[in-house]
Specification:
alpha+beta; 3-stranded antiparallel beta sheet; two-stranded antiparallel ribbon; 4 helices; 5 strands; elongated
């Protein structure tokens, strides 16, 4: 038997809330709620709900052995730089920050390159491209508890235009 995530108890049932306004972008919906907050409205009684959700994956390029190695190397460099900086600042390298950074970058780059190649080899050619993914909604609806919905609508009529 699966146990429900306790964080879901913090999210009220949206079916009992009333539509106050609809916006084409999340930024506009967020701006409306921010305006309500500025007007001392009880924003804890508001929700922004994306409707018509779509998963969008933008393909950014081909992936081959060379690109897999380069991407792995670059990621390893960044992780190595961070770890080297952290070790250096914590004094775990006898006070030699430059040595810690150099060692972290070199070791991180080599490790990243190896992991990039291993990951590409294990994919077996099933995903020979790179991409960036995210969620996109058709519109964003600002919902409010029924007791305060009319107040929110009234306040939003005086929302200044951009």
């Amino acid at each position: 038997m699966t146990q429900q995530d306790p964080r879901l108890d913090l999210i009220p049932d949206q079916r009992t809330r009333v539509n106050v306004a609809t916006y084409p972008t999340y930024g506009e919906a967020q701006r409306a709620v921010d305006y309500l907050s500025d007007q001392q409205f009880p924003v804890e009684r508001i929700a922004i709900v994306g409707e018509g959700l779509k998963m969008v994956e933008q393909v950014t390029g081909r992936l081959n052995w060379g690109r897999a190695a380069a991407l792995g190397f670059a990621q390893g460099l960044m992780i190595g730089l961070f770890v080297g900086l952290l070790f250096g600042l914590l004094g775990l390298t006898a006070g030699n920050l430059l040595f810690a950074l150099s060692y972290g970058v070199v070791l991180g780059g080599i490790t990243g390159l190896i992991w990039g190649l291993i990951g590409y080899a294990l994919s077996g050619g099933r995903r020979d491209f790179t991409s960036v993914g995210g969620m996109k909604a058709d519109c964003y609806v600002v919902l409010a508890d029924p007791e305060v919905a009319e107040q929110a609508r009234t306040l939003l009529t005086s929302l200044p235009a951009r």
